[in-house]
Amino acid sequence: MSDPHLSAADPTISELIHKEEQRQFDKVRLIPSENYVSRAVLEASGSVLSNKYSEGYAGKRYYEGQQFIDEVENLAVSRVKKLFGSDHVNVQPYSGSPANFAVYFAFCKPGDTVMGLGLPSGGHLTHGWPVSVTGSYFNAVQYGVRREDQRIDFDEVAKLAKENKPKIMWCGTTAYPRVVDYDRFAQIARDCGAILIADIAHISGLIAGGSHPSPVGKAEVITSTTHKTFRGPRGGMIMCDEKHAKAIDKAVFPGLQGGPHNSTTAGIAVAALEADTPAFKKYAHAIVENAKTFAEALMSHGFKLTTGGTDNHLILCDLTHQNVSGKIAAQALDRAGIECNYNSVPFDPRKPFDPSGIRIGTPAITSRGFGATEMKAIASWMAKVVAAPTDATLLARIAGEVSDMCHKFPAPGISLK
Ligand code: DSN
Fold it and tell me: pTM (2 decimals)?
């Protein structure tokens, strides 16, 4: 049987992949949930392991032929365990949302009370926001941030927890630029009898690399994606205390999913190996250092940042007073070669599809080796774009300058020069 390479078998898809590769190389990629994975992770994730069905867990599968798959999954599990120091790890969730759904299935019945940070305050849809299944099948109580400093309002968290006695309490964020205080959450959860779940999707790489405190030993269950700061393939994982291991495993399979995506499991194993190195620790600290420099530079150009800065990989710019919506700004920035996403800010007067903020982050650009000089240059370009988002000549000129800068830095997994 003929078995041509993609470029011959499907030149259209091949060309689109090539164009996307070029785009990722030429642009400053600031979406805080994205990254560049290594060539090794790419190779593992696009391997023949995709050909295999493996419902069940290592040693207890429903299909034969698992001699090598079991080893791959055991390696992924043991590497993640070692990296985070957790009792039990499940690497089968297809991504972050399925990982979170598995947690609900493990501990809650429809109608039970759950608590999480509201989406407009920087939480995730799956932490009980009304449009998510988690907000419609459960009695979801949402806490928020304080209006004056946009930080998590622990007085409100404690009050709501006492009044509502949730079964599970989420602490975790997707648009919150500050350290999450796991000790305070753990105390509140203990006081109201809730199981504390930390969703560390955005910051798992920072935790693995030691640049953000770890929730292990404080949250009984921890969920994460594997493709953000962790720099692995698109996937999910759940860590938990031993007492919850059975419930979590049963909820993932057979509760929620069928066969695990074995190529992804291999990619997670490779990413965990890469994360267990001094180079990755340096990377995790550089992400935060870059974000702080970037935040200072943006503020020096007049940008208002929610909470007034950042402790992690993420910056949320509030454009409310800059006469431009987040969507217009993000679209203009994209034309200028700077990719970010528009995002609601706390207490946003605008609608989520055309909100007042833009969300940016440093994981991807730090993977390319950008440092303080580049952070300052990007902040300066951003100020010019946001001040004149319809100036096509300006946007084209900046896109050229951005591309020139990007070409000085290699991108992991990308062969272009
Ligand atoms: N979509 C992810 C993010 O960008 O933060 C969260 O699911």
Answer: 0.97
